[in-house]
Design goal:
- The chain is mainly α.
- The chain is 76% helix and 0% strand.
- The termini are far apart.
Length: 468
């Protein structure tokens, strides 16, 4: 007789509990890196799956399939690393920091940072492009104004994910609409009711947090010092703003991400050679290993020593391991078992929406992939939403409220690893200040229990639509 390969809920939760416990222990007693806990979790998950009758060949196929999904992300990560290195070498990032220090004040900096990232991300549809270009510069400006890096990172990520979520150019926005069979613009309109309140509340919080840095008497002297050092070591000119503007324009014009970013990297090389008069070897070193600032000022050197293709390799290894865990859990059915158990808790519209949000967050944690956090709940909950007489756009919105915005809050998630590497701030440090990302799922759940903005299926309209 064929062995029953179904894995119980208790066994399915073991890899997740193991990961959580080992991560906590590693943060407290180890080096705070996630690599070893992720490797251990892969082993534990594989042992459970094999003990229930799954072959290693099946699990390996699932791992490879899961990793394949993120191959484009690897290329984008490497290009972003090159962009950061060459944009600092080319004076692009120093120029943005220099002029930003002139314009922004500490009191309003966090609000301005979130709004600027919202606009750029809404225009480009890409949180990654926003954080990897404008975000890096804003982090430097915040440093000069005396705002802690982890708080600045929270405002940058909050703004970037607002735009990523609401832009018709965003991959996740299109994906959520496609998976649930909802018109793209209907999906975006429906998200307005959870996304804008979350952003407004976040901006209010950022305003009050920012006020704590507005009266620092050391700010102005520190700002002047940074400006002077930057001007001594780089050619500062408004023409360098053309580089980020061209990248944004290319993305808006729907040029694919990789060619658009490669163009940005090329402009970094051009600016380094022709404007900053850097020699070719040093430019290539900045692209490969990151820019090493040597201004004689420790604060500015720390601020501008970033980037490089090599600097993204740790992040890529983190993503590979996270996707390996996700591949094993999905292939063996452990992930499905956990989600099915959540469905048993559903007693009404509120608990259904809360379960869908929780599932999206859970998939982000377990698989480490933002796309799966949208696709899997979108498929798993479609029938149940229909049974509860809820329009599909309620589900598409929930997938984004739970899946899209929480992805940068998980250290081993593709998005979380990217944000931490690009901004140089550990996920656990910036997480409490990503107010938009934390508030969005809460508003979605509150609307579910109160019925606010939850749209029911009109049977007459539905029958009429099916008859056309």
């Amino acid at each position: 007789m064929k062995k029953d390969r179904r894995i119980s809920l208790g066994l399915s939760l073991i890899p997740i509990l193991f990961l959580m416990i080992t991560l906590i222990l590693n943060i407290k007693f180890g080096n705070e890196e996630s690599i070893i806990p992720l490797i251990g979790t892969c082993i534990v998950a594989a042992i459970i799956a094999v003990s229930k009758g799954y072959t290693w060949e099946e699990l390996e196929e699932g791992i490879i399939s899961s990793i394949t999904i993120t191959l484009q992300s690897f290329l984008i990560l490497m290009i972003i690393g090159i962009i950061i290195g060459t944009w600092i070498s080319g004076g692009i990032v120093p120029t943005i920091i220099y002029y930003g220090l002139h314009i922004l004040s500490p009191k309003f900096f966090l609000v301005a940072s979130a709004v600027l990232c919202s606009i750029v991300s809404l225009s480009t549809g890409s949180s990654w492009t926003t954080v990897g270009t404008i975000g890096v510069a804003l982090l430097g400006i915040g440093h000069g104004l005396g705002v802690p890096a982890h708080i600045t990172a929270g405002s940058i990520i909050s703004g970037a994910y607002f735009g990523d979520k609401m832009s018709p150019l965003s991959e996740t926005t299109n994906m959520a609409a496609a998976v649930t069979g909802v018109d793209l613009y209907e999906h975006i309109k429906h998200m307005f009711f959870t996304t804008f309140p979350a952003l407004l509340i976040s901006l209010v919080i950022f305003f009050f947090v920012g006020r704590g840095y507005g009266g620092n008497a050391m700010d102005q002297s520190q700002v002047l010092m940074i400006e002077e050092v930057i001007k001594e070591n780089f050619v500062i000119t408004p023409w360098l703003f053309l580089a980020p503007l061209i990248v944004i324009l290319l993305v808006v014009k729907k040029v694919p991400a990789i060619p658009a970013l490669m163009c940005g990297a090329f402009m970094g090389f051009v600016c380094s050679y022709f404007i900053q008069k850097a020699d070719p070897i040093s430019i290539l070193n900045s692209a490969q290993y990151g820019f090493e600032a040597d201004t004689g000022n420790e604060l500015v050197d720390q601020l501008l020593s970033k980037g490089g293709l090599d600097g993204m390799m740790y992040t890529i290894s983190l993503i590979i391991l996270a996707m390996s865990i996700g591949g094993i859990l999905e292939t063996s059915g452990m992930l499905q078992t956990i989600v099915d158990s959540l469905l048993k808790l559903v007693k009404g519209t509120g608990s259904l929406i809360a379960s869908a949000v929780a599932s999206s967050i859970l998939v982000n944690i377990v698989t480490g992939d933002q796309s799966l956090a949208i696709i899997l709940p979108g498929r798993m909950f479609a029938k149940t939403f229909e049974e509860y007489n809820l329009k599909a756009k309620n589900l598409s919105r929930v997938c984004e409220d739970g899946g899209t915005v929480t992805s940068p809050l998980v250290p081993w998630n593709v998005c979380g690893a990217f944000m931490a590497s690009t901004l140089g701030v550990p996920t656990i440090m910036y997480l409490p200040f990503c107010f938009f990302n934390l508030i969005s799922p809460l508003i979605s759940i509150i609307w579910g229990f109160t019925g606010i903005t939850i749209e029911k299926i009109n049977n007459k309209d539905e029958m009429k639509g099916r008859g056309k």
